[in-house]
Design goal:
Strand order of the largest sheet of chain A: 3-2-4-5-7-6-12
CATH topology of chain B: Rossmann fold
Radius of gyration of chain B: 19 Å
Number of helices of chain A: 11
Mean pLDDT of chain A: 97
Bound molecules: thiamine diphosphate
Distance between the termini of chain B: 45 Å
Low-confidence stretches of chain B: none
Shape of chain B: globular
Number of domains of chain A: 2
Order of helices and strands of chain B: EHHEHHHEHEEEHEHEHHH
Number of strands of chain B: 8
CATH class of the largest domain in chain A: Alpha Beta
CATH architecture of the largest domain in chain A: 3-Layer(aba) Sandwich
CATH superfamily of the largest domain in chain A: Thiamin diphosphate (ThDP)-binding fold, Pyr/PP domains
Strand order of the largest sheet of chain B: 1-7-8-4-3-2
Radius of gyration of chain A: 20 Å
Number of domains of chain B: 1
Strand content of chain B: 5-15%
Helix content of chain B: 40-55%
Oligomer: heterodimer
Chain lengths: 331, 334
Amino acid sequence: MPESATRELTFAQAVREALAEEMRRDSRVCIIGEDVAEAGTPFKVLSGLVEEFGSERVVDAPISEAGFTGVGVGAAMTGLRPVVDIMFGDFITLTMDQMVNQAAKIHYMSGGHWKVPMVMRTTLGATRRSAAQHSQSLHAWFSHVPGLKVVLPSTPYDAKGLLKTAIRDENPVVFFEDKMMYKLKGPVPEDDYTIPLGVADVKRAGDDITLVATSSMVQIALRAADLLEKESISAEVVDPRTTWPLDEKTLIESAKKTSRVIVLDEGYGRYGVTAELAALIAEGAFYDLDAPVKRMAAMHVPIPFSPPLEDVTIPTEQTVFHAARSMCKPS
Amino acid sequence: MTMAAPQFEAGADTAVQRDKWIHMYRQMVSIRLFEEQVNELYTRALMPGLAHLYSGEEAVAVGICEALRIDDYITSTHRGHGHCLAKGASPDRMFAELLGKEAGYCRGKGGSMHIADPATGNLGANAIVGGSVGIATGAAFAAKKLATDRVAVCFFGEGALGQGSLYEVMNLAQLWKLPVIYVCENNLYNEYTHYTETTAGDVLSRATAFGIEAASVDGQDVRAVYGIASRFVERARRGEGPGFLQCNTYRYTGHHVGDINREYYRSKTEEQLWKTERDPLKVLSEWLLAQGLAGAPALKEIQDQIRARMEAAVKFAIESPYPSVDEVEKHVYA
Ligand SMILES: Cc1ncc(C[n+]2csc(CCOP(=O)(O)OP(=O)(O)O)c2C)c(N)n1
């Protein structure tokens, strides 16, 4: 983190500040989405933006995710830099054709002639008691598609720096925010800064085991690392920050150093982000590993409503702690 | 509302008017002869993929695009060669694209269904039915925000009336008064099914329900298409909002070149009737002759010139190299 003065911001404030700064810097940046203007979204992430930038640039759209995502694609091709707001990550299903068949492919199909510099901001994450259609973490779907970039910030600092980079990127970028993290506080510099896409961050250095974690799971991994420390196990927490582009080198180097790896992600494990990262580490660090790479992810079930059921569907600091301890100290 | 073809405006310069109609004739002949070459390339197995020919529908693309400026936008469809040519693309680079050659508009990476060209405002053909309705509406959104006074035209077949996103963006376009014109090319068939089997109720009402100005026009009469298109385009340019234009037309050949035996969904008599009674080239040329604006030899000469141009363009494409294999990983990201 740079040396300049910092203050504590929430994750939501950091996102808002990134948007406001980019909108001040570049008049082509605009926001399109449901209840983004006066309402500032159900999570109040955008509060105050319409007051500063007006309804010409903070545009309330009808409940037409495919429609206004498509508008974002066309507007990005022809001179604007839209930030399309999809209220819940579950609703990306309605935008799939626009993102996968249009946005992701236009640059390639046109032989490099058209570009789609747009950002889709949306959410992920369970445990908000929102049940099966408002709790999914579907970032693996977009990570699967060449032509898209996928960002998974885990701290206010990362959220601000990565979002600014995403808005300046010439490609379609999908930016997933953990809705349970909006109130998380952290230090954010007052000065302008950006964070490049495709650079992992070691959130905590350690020697005995690597916890590779994304988005919501970074905080879980950090808390598990605290618990492990009490048992004299030194855990390293590595956050790739973007699933594509992906900083393979940092992940593999950490795995080689500690020789044990757990990969954590709140999306589904089957055919998901943990599968990809574990495979990559197994291929890149096989001869340095002392144990098979372990994956921890959402259970392969629709997210249930009932709290005791929902709570067991995703990794927690306790389950991660126990898994890590048994890998390091087999009984 | 059904529109008749405009007559000469009183006092307008006849020579200018004549040149305009002759130019449209040239454009329509270009599309017809381009597609003849495509058919030939395809049947000689020189063209990979699928070929959806525009023959029979020429008056729609030409009538609409002639009402546009070069910097106005279009989005196109799987049946898009006519739109590209009418918007100003050159046949040699189009043929090169169809053959997957590096000289093609998309360096061979798009093919017949994805030709795009920023220089002529062509945002791209689209192989997803209804896939470009958002893009065209977004281009109109940007034109309005950036105050460029550009207009966007979204071409789609009547098959796209089945796609929900069309209704999402029409609602947006009317709410936000966007300069976009939805051009429904009703050639009667969604692939192999008559559109009345797939389309309930009335077509225009779907647009008027949103308060969008809508009209039907004889899509075989380029003068009629041009007349109504000009009115819709000027309206949109003045900031008065979107339009919806249904152009009634007919595709002469199969859904794609390989769709040969099609009597199970439409009769040879029907096809013949459209070709002899409603051919867009014939409709215009007969009018030109009757008005004394062109003689038969002049029209024949136009055809010969264009045929030679198409042959040269095909030759160029055939002789052009394929992209080198390292092109495969280029342009995934900008
Ligand atoms: C979303 C989608 N569904 C199905 C198809 C397969 N398909 C290609 S063309 C076509 C029919 C299109 O009919 P219409 O829109 O009327 O256009 P036309 O071919 O008549 O020009 C279909 C179903 C497709 N390309 N995209």
